[in-house]
Amino acid sequence: MRLFDVQGIEILTPRDKLFDFVRDPRNLPRWAHAFKSADHDRARLETPSGAVEVVLHTDADPEAGTVDWRIEFSDKSVAVAQSRVTETTRGTCIYSFVLHAPPVPLEQIEGALEQQRATLRQELSTLKSLMES
Length: 133
Hints:
Elements: E1 4-11, H1 15-23, H2 28-31, E2 35-38, E3 42-47, E4 50-61, E5 66-72, E6 78-87, E7 93-100, H3 106-132
């Protein structure tokens, strides 16, 4: 059983522009479907189970191009995701995203991760559209 998925997308935009957009949690609702609102401390997510308020930590390293998130739920469960913006020699960027299985019971992980993988593909496409327009 897989417990993670890695996806990436090539985006025609300067590295700094993409990194600055991704690192700002207030932009999450513009491209990450579950986020209905977010700031530097908290977020509101819409999940299949309903709306939930979470604590959101964003750790961004401009030199490495990494943007990592830690989401803490009220039941003390934690979800994490890591991403990276890398520059190519073609004048584009590759945005890669590590999706971890959600904090659900083991028997639900495979289905939940598969659903999140499909959502992530759509989100990366949305991000590409936003950055290239």
